[in-house]
Design a protein that fits this description.
The structure holds 2 protein chains of 2 kinds.
Chain A lengths: L1 H14 L7 E10 L10 E4 L4 E4 L5 E7 L1 E8 L6 E7 L3 E2 L2 E3 L13 H9 L5 E4 L1 H6 L9 H5 L5 E2 L9 E2 L7 E5 L2 E2 L4 E2 L4 E2 L6 E7 L13 E7 L8 E6 L3 E11 L3 E10 L12 E15 L4 E16 L3 E19 L2 E18 L4 E19 L4 E21 L9 E2 L3 E15 L4 E15 L4 E4 L5 E4 L4 E4 L2 E5 L6 E19 L2 E12 L1 E4 L10 E4 L7 E14 L4 E18 L15 E17 L4 E15 L16 E2 L6 E10 L4 E10 L3 E2 L4 E5 L2 E5 L8 E2 L3 E10 L10 E9 L9 E6 L6 E6 L5 E9 L1
Parallel strand pairs in A: 1-7, 1-8, 12-17
Antiparallel strand pairs in A: 1-4, 2-3, 2-5, 5-6, 9-16, 10-11, 12-13, 14-15, 16-17, 18-19, 18-53, 19-20, 20-21, 21-22, 22-23, 23-24, 24-25, 25-26, 26-27, 26-28, 28-29, 29-34, 30-33, 31-32, 34-35, 35-38, 36-37, 38-39, 39-40, 40-41, 41-42, 41-43, 43-44, 44-49, 45-48, 46-47, 49-50, 50-53, 51-52
Chain B lengths: L2 H13 L3 E4 L10 E10 L6 E3 L2 E5 L15 E6 L4 E6 L6 E4 L10 E8 L2 E8 L6 E7 L9 E8 L7 E6 L3 E6 L7 E8 L8 E10 L1 H16 L17 E2 L8 E16 L5
Parallel strand pairs in B: 2-17
Antiparallel strand pairs in B: 2-3, 2-4, 4-7, 5-6, 5-8, 6-7, 8-9, 9-16, 10-11, 11-14, 12-13, 12-15, 15-17
Chain lengths: 792, 277
C-alpha cells in the first residue's frame, strides 16, 4: 500500500493548477424530486457562455465559470428542465431536484441540449438505455431484460436464444467487463442464458462502452457494461413489483431517516416448477436474485453506500442430478468531497462465483469458482472549465478454484481430488483527462498502467522445453505433452508477472451545433481467460489466469464516428467504423477436454483475433412515435498459426470466423403511444446465421455412424439466417390517476410469425431409419406473455 | 463423468420439443479408406477367444445411404516380437477381413497391421491393453430425465497400480468412455441409464468393458461426441477432424480414418424386466 500512497500524492501534485481570480466554481448534486435518487448524466448547461457539464455516477457535478449572472438549464431525459437564474459571485453549492416530466412537457424544446452535449463530448461508442425503455421492449416470456435489450443496438449480438453472455463488436463473451455498482459480475445470465441476472426494477443506469473506453476501466478487452443500482427512496416508503409468467419481482425501498438514510431491497424469483410440465418425474428448476442497498448521506461531503447482489440458479432432477450456480457481490463505498472541485469514491468489493454439480448416479459432487477482493479509489477532479481529471488506483486479488471432486455417498468409489488452486493479483492506476481544447475541439486522453502477478500455488506443472503442447508429425495432430515435473511455491512467490501501459485517446470535432466527428483509440489488457470451447459459454466454464503458459490478451481498437442530430434533436444519427486487433487469443487442440483438467496448458494454442465493422443507429427520440433503426456490418475472425513451419495450427494457419461472427445485424425498435391508456412496442431483428461446421463425409466405426469434419474449413458454413418480430402492448388503467396504487399490464408476443430460428444444426443418424439427417433445433416458437407491474 | 453427462441433459430439457429435419447441402471430399480394427480378447471366457475382424470401408458423402465396402485389399498382421505374419482374408467379400487361422493376441507383444489398398500401404501398431472383469451388473429402479430409462448398476474393481481407461459398450451402439483418475483402485460403481423406446420385456442385453489406451480413450470420446449422440446446441464443442493411429506410408497426405486397437474385454449378459410401477 505504500506504493499506492505515493502514487496518490503524485496525482495530487500533478493536478494542482493555477487559481484564477475571475472564475468561481458551482457544484452540487442533482436528485429526482420524487424519491431523492441521485441522477447520472444530467446536463448542467449555461447557454449564454455555451459551457456545460454532466453529473457523475453519484449525481455530483462541478463546473468552473467566470463570475456573473447566468441562466442555467438543468435537463435530463424524461424530466422537466429546470431553468434558473443564478448570481454567481463566489464559490457556490447548489443542489437541483428534477421533477419527472408530465405528459404536456414531453416535447420540451430545451431537451435538445442533451443531444448537443452528446454530440460534443469526445466519448463515443456508448450504448445507453433507460430502465423505462427496457421495460417496454417486448421480450420472451415478458421478462424485461437489460442484455436482451442491448442486443437491439448496434455492435452487440448474442449467440442466440438460450445462449449465455453477449458479444460486443466481434469480441468474445468473456471479454465483457460487467460491473454492478462497480463490482465485477462473472455470470450475467440465469437458466443457461435465457434471462439476464439484472432485475430491471433495481437498475438506475445502464451504459455499455464498446470502444473509446476511458482509462478508469480495465481488465477486459471488448466492452464495459456499467450498471448502477438505485439507492432507495429516501423520501417515502415505496413498493414496486411485477408478476410474470416465469418470475415475479418485488422491490421495497424507503427512508430510515428522511433524506439521510435509505434502504432498498429487491428480490426476483422464478417459479420453482418451471420445467415440471415437460416431464412427469421429480424435477425442479428455479433462479432468484436479491439486490440490497443501504445508503447514508452523512453530510454534504460524505456518503456511505453498502450494496449487495446475490443470485442463484438451481436445477435438479430427483437426487440424481443437482446443478447450482450463482454470483455473490458485496460492496462498501464511501463518497467524499475533498473540495467543491475534488470528488472521491473509495470502494471495497467482494465478488464470488460458484458452480456446483452433484451427479449421484456416478457418485460425486463437483464444485468450482472464482473469488475476488477488490479495492478501488477513484477521484474526479474538476480542475477548470477546460480540464477535468479522473484518476485512481485499483487492486484486485483473485483466487481461482478450478474444481474439486468429492464422493457424495459412502459406497461411491470416487476418490476425492482437488485441482490446484491459483492465485493472482492485479494492480492498476490511471489518469484520464477530459480536455476542452477549443469550442470545436475536445479530447479525452488517459493512460492506465496495469500489473498482473501470478502468485505462488501449491504445484505448477513443468514440461520439457516448457512446451505443454507438442505436434505429432506422424499422426498429424497436436497432443498434450507429458509432465516432466512439479514445481512447488510459497503463496508469496511470484510465478509470472506482466506490466502493461494502456493508452486511451478519444476526440471530438464539432462541425456545427448538430454535427460532430469523433475518433478514438484504446488499448486494453485482459489477464483472465474463460476456458470455453463451445459456441457460447456455459456456467461450468472456468476462468484461468495468465501465467507461465498463458499470456495476457491485448487489444488495440481504433474507431471513427460521425454524429448528427436533426430537427432540434428529434432525430439523431450515429455512425461508427471500428477496427480491433487482439493478441494472445487462445484456441484449443482437437479433442481438448476442458473439464476438470489440471493440465489445461496442454490443450491450449495461442493465436490472435481481429474484428472490424460499420455501425449505424438512427433514432427518433421524441413524440408519440419513437424508436430506432440499427444496422451493423462486421467481421470477426481468429488466427491460430502453427508455431513452426511444420505445424498446421488451426484451419491450416488461415483466418477463420469466430463462433460469433455475424455479417449483418439489423434491428428496428418502434414504440407508439396511442393514448394515456395504451402504448405499443415492437422489434424486428434480422441477423446472418452464426458460423457452423458441416460434415464433408461419413464413415462407420464399431457400428457408430460418424461425420467427417475438415480441419481446413473451420466455421466455414453458416446456420440459416435469424429473424423474428415481437410486439407488446402496455395498458395503464385509467383508474390509476387518483390513487397511490399504480398498475400496468404488459401483453407481449415474442416471435409473432413463429419463425423457427436455428439455435444449432446437428448431423446424426436417425435411430429408426438409419439414414443420416441434419436436425435443426430451434428454441422458441410463438411465445405469448403477460406481465403485471405495480407500484405503491 | 464429464460434461458428457451434463450437457445432453440441458439439451434434452430445453430443446427437445423443437427439432426438425432440414435439407442442407454439404461439401464433399474424395473417399478415404476407413480402417475399423478394434480387437477384443475375451479374457474371462473359457477357453479364451477373441474378435479380430478388420473392417475396411470407404468414406461416403454425408447423406449417401450406403457406405462402400473394400473387398480387394491385402491385410496382414506382423507379430513384431518375432516377425511372424498372420494373414487376413475377406472370404465372403463383405469388407470384413478375418485371420486365416484363429488367432488370439498375447500380452506385451506389439502387432503391426498392414493394409495394401489401391497401391498404397497403410500401417499401424497396437499392444493389448489389460482390463478388469465386471463384478456385477444389476437392474435398478431409478430414472434420470424422461422417467422411461432403465437403470443399470454397474460395478467393477479398478487396478490401483496403473492408469486405466475403459470403454463400455452397452448393448448395441451405446458407448461410454471412463478413466480411473477419480476412482483409482476402488470398487467403483455407477449407474447407466439405458433407453430404448422399442424395448420388449424380458430383453437380454450385453454389456462389455474393454481396457483401452489413453489415446484411444480420447479418440473414442470425440467419436461418440461427433456421432450425434449429443444433439448439438450452443454448448456443443467445435467439431474437428478425428485422426486415428493408422498412417498411409505411401502417400502421407491421403491419410486414412479409423483405429487399430487391441483390448481385453469382459462381457456380462443381463435380462431386463419390466419395472413394476
Amino acid at each position: 500500500m505504500l506504493l499506492s500512497k505515493k502514487i496518490l500524492i503524485l496525482f495530487f501534485l500533478l493536478s494542482i493548477t493555477a487559481f484564477s481570480q475571475e472564475k468561481i466554481t458551482l457544484s452540487g448534486t442533482v436528485y429526482d424530486n420524487k424519491n431523492n435518487e441521485t441522477l447520472i448524466g444530467v446536463s448542467i448547461y449555461f447557454p449564454e457562455i455555451n459551457i456545460g457539464t454532466t453529473t457523475n455516477q453519484y449525481g455530483f457535478y462541478s463546473i468552473t465559470i467566470p463570475k456573473g449572472n447566468y441562466q442555467v438549464q438543468v435537463s435530463y431525459l424524461g424530466f422537466s428542465t429546470i431553468v434558473a437564474s443564478l448570481k454567481l459571485l463566489e464559490k457556490t453549492t447548489k443542489n437541483f431536484k428534477l421533477k419527472e416530466a408530465t405528459e404536456s412537457l414531453d416535447e420540451i424544446v430545451l431537451e435538445t441540449n442533451i443531444e448537443k452535449l452528446n454530440i460534443r463530448t469526445p466519448q463515443m461508442s456508448v450504448n445507453k438505455l433507460s430502465s423505462a425503455t427496457i421495460k417496454q421492449i417486448p421480450v420472451v416470456l415478458g421478462e424485461a431484460d437489460i442484455i436482451k435489450s442491448l442486443i437491439l443496438l448496434p455492435g452487440v449480438t448474442s449467440a442466440g436464444e438460450g445462449a449465455s453472455g453477449f458479444n460486443v463488436r466481434g469480441g468474445a463473451a468473456d471479454q465483457n467487463l460487467i460491473l454492478l455498482d462497480e463490482a465485477i459480475v462473472f455470470n450475467s445470465s440465469h437458466l443457461f442464458g435465457f434471462f439476464s441476472v439484472f432485475n430491471p426494477d433495481v437498475i438506475k443506469d445502464v451504459k455499455l462502452f464498446k470502444g473509446g473506453i476511458p482509462a478508469k476501466y480495465g481488465g477486459r478487452l471488448s466492452s464495459v457494461l456499467d450498471i448502477y443500482q438505485k439507492e432507495g427512496n429516501s423520501k417515502d416508503f415505496n413498493v414496486t413489483g411485477g408478476i410474470g409468467l416465469v418470475s415475479s419481482r418485488l422491490l421495497i425501498e424507503g427512508p430510515i431517516e428522511k433524506e439521510k438514510i435509505s434502504f432498498l431491497i429487491g428480490g426476483r424469483s422464478s417459479y420453482a416448477h418451471l420445467f415440471l410440465p415437460l416431464f412427469d418425474n421429480d424435477n425442479i428448476a428455479y433462479f432468484y436474485d436479491l439486490n440490497t442497498k443501504l445508503n447514508y448521506r452523512i453530510n454534504y461531503r460524505n456518503s456511505v453506500f453498502f450494496s449487495g447482489y446475490f443470485g442463484k440458479d438451481f436445477f435438479g432432477i430427483s437426487e440424481n442430478f443437482i446443478n447450482t450456480y450463482g454470483n455473490q457481490v458485496a460492496n462498501l463505498r464511501w463518497n467524499h468531497l475533498f473540495s467543491d472541485k475534488l470528488f472521491s469514491n473509495l470502494s471495497l468489493i467482494y465478488s464470488d462465483y460458484f458452480y456446483g454439480l452433484t451427479l449421484d448416479f456416478v457418485g460425486f459432487e463437483w464444485d468450482s469458482g472464482i473469488t475476488n477482493y477488490n479495492i478501488k479509489y477513484d477521484f474526479n477532479h474538476y480542475v477548470n472549465d477546460k480540464i477535468k481529471l479522473s484518476y485512481g488506483i485499483n487492486n484486485i486479488y483473485t483466487k481461482f478454484n478450478p474444481g474439486k471432486i468429492i464422493p457424495n455417498r459412502e459406497d461411491s468409489g470416487i476418490v476425492a481430488e482437488k485441482l490446484i488452486d491459483k492465485y493472482a493479483n492485479e494492480f492498476a492506476f490511471y489518469l484520464n483527462t477530459e480536455h476542452k481544447i477549443s469550442d470545436k475541439f475536445r479530447m479525452q486522453y488517459g493512460l492506465r498502467y496495469s500489473n498482473f502477478t501470478r502468485l505462488g500455488q501449491d504445484e505448477l506443472n513443468v514440461y520439457a522445453n516448457n512446451e505443454a503442447v507438442i505436434y505429432n508429425q506422424e499422426f498429424k495432430r497436436y497432443e498434450s505433452a507429458t509432465l516432466t515435473g512439479i514445481e512447488n511455491f510459497e503463496r508469496s512467490d511470484v510465478i509470472a508477472s506482466f506490466n502493461n501501459l494502456e493508452p486511451r485517446v478519444s476526440m471530438s470535432y464539432i462541425i456545427d451545433d448538430f454535427t460532430s466527428v469523433k475518433a478514438s483509440y484504446n488499448r486494453m489488457v485482459q489477464y483472465l481467460h474463460l476456458l470455453s470451447n463451445t459456441a457460447s459459454p456455459t456456467p461450468l466454464d472456468v476462468w484461468a489466469p495468465s501465467g507461465k503458459y498463458i499470456k495476457p490478451q491485448l487489444l488495440d481498437q481504433y474507431a471513427v464516428g460521425y454524429f448528427k442530430s436533426f430537427k432540434d434533436g428529434k432525430y439523431t444519427l450515429e455512425t461508427e467504423a471500428f477496427y480491433k486487433d487482439i493478441q494472445n487469443r487462445i484456441d484449443y487442440i482437437n479433442g481438448a477436454n476442458l473439464v476438470a483438467n489440471n493440465e489445461i496448458e496442454t490443450v491450449i494454442l495461442n493465436g490472435k483475433a481481429r474484428a472490424y465493422g460499420l455501425e449505424m443507429l438512427l433514432k427518433k427520440n421524441e413524440g408519440d412515435f419513437q424508436g430506432w433503426f440499427s444496422y451493423t456490418l462486421s467481421r470477426s475472425e481468429q488466427l491460430t498459426s502453427g508455431r513452426t513451419a511444420n505445424e498446421p495450427g488451426i484451419n491450416n494457419s488461415e483466418w477463420y470466423s469466430t463462433p460469433f461472427d455475424k455479417t449483418h445485424d439489423f434491428s428496428i425498435n418502434a414504440s407508439y403511444k396511442l393514448n394515456e391508456k395504451w402504448k405499443f412496442n415492437s422489434n424486428f431483428v434480422f441477423q446472418t446465421g452464426q458460423p457452423a461446421n458441416y460434415p464433408v463425409g461419413q464413415y462407420e466405426i464399431q457400428g457408430l455412424n460418424v461425420p467427417i469434419f475438415d480441419d481446413n474449413r473451420r466455421n466455414a458454413d453458416r446456420l440459416p439466417a435469424y429473424h423474428r418480430l415481437d410486439i407488446s402492448a402496455t395498458l395503464t388503467p385509467k383508474k390509476n390517476k387518483n390513487r397511490k396504487w399504480q398498475g400496468e399490464w404488459v401483453f407481449g408476443i415474442y416471435n409473432l410469425y413463429g419463425r423457427q430460428n436455428a439455435a444449432s444444426l446437428a448431423f446424426r443418424q436417425n435411430q429408426e431409419t438409419f439414414r443420416n439427417e441434419a436436425v435443426q433445433t430451434s428454441i422458441f416458437g410463438i411465445v405469448p406473455s403477460v406481465t403485471y407491474n405495480f407500484n405503491f | 463423468m464429464k460434461k458428457l453427462y451434463i450437457l445432453p441433459v440441458l439439451m434434452i430439457m430445453l430443446f427437445s420439443n423443437c427439432e426438425k429435419v432440414v435439407d442442407i447441402e454439404v461439401p464433399t471430399i474424395q473417399p478415404k479408406l476407413i480402417i475399423d480394427a478394434s480387437f477384443e480378447v475375451f479374457f474371462d471366457k473359457i477357453p479364451v477367444n477373441a474378435n479380430t475382424v478388420v473392417k475396411l470401408r470407404l468414406s461416403a458423402d454425408y447423406f449417401e445411404e450406403t457406405i462402400p465396402t473394400v473387398t480387394n485389399a491385402t491385410v496382414f498382421l506382423t507379430d513384431l516380437s518375432n516377425n511372424t505374419i498372420i494373414n487376413f482374408s475377406d472370404g465372403d467379400a463383405d469388407g470384413n477381413y478375418e485371420p486365416l487361422n484363429p488367432f488370439i493376441p498375447i500380452d506385451n507383444v506389439t502387432y503391426e497391421l498392414t493394409i495394401i489398398y489401391d497401391n498404397e500401404t497403410y500401417k499401424g501398431t497396437a499392444t493389448k491393453v489389460k482390463s478388469t472383469p465386471l463384478s456385477k451388473v444389476e437392474q435398478g429402479d431409478k430414472t434420470l430425465f424422461s422417467g422411461e430409462e432403465i437403470e443399470l448398476k454397474i460395478s467393477f474393481k479398478d487396478n490401483i497400480l496403473e492408469e486405466n481407461y475403459y470403454l463400455f459398450n452397452i448393448d448395441f451402439y451405446n458407448f461410454l468412455t471412463i478413466e480411473d483418475r477419480f476412482f483409482n483402485g476402488t470398487n467403483y460403481n455407477f449407474s447407466y441409464f439405458y433407453e430404448d423406446e422399442n424395448i420388449e420385456f424380458p430383453q437380454e442385453i450385453d454389456i462389455k468393458i474393454s481396457g483401452i489406451t489413453k489415446e484411444y480413450f480420447t479418440y473414442f470420446r470425440v467419436l461418440v461426441d461427433q456421432s450425434g449422440q449429443n444433439s448439438g446446441g450452443p454448448f456443443e464443442t467445435v467439431p474437428s477432424s478425428l485422426l486415428g493411429n493408422m498412417i498411409n506410408t505411401t502417400n502421407k497426405s491421403n491419410f486414412p480414418l479409423g483405429y487399430f486397437h487391441i483390448s481385453e474385454t469382459d462381457t456380462f449378459t443381463i435380462s431386463l424386466v419390466e419395472k413394476s410401477n
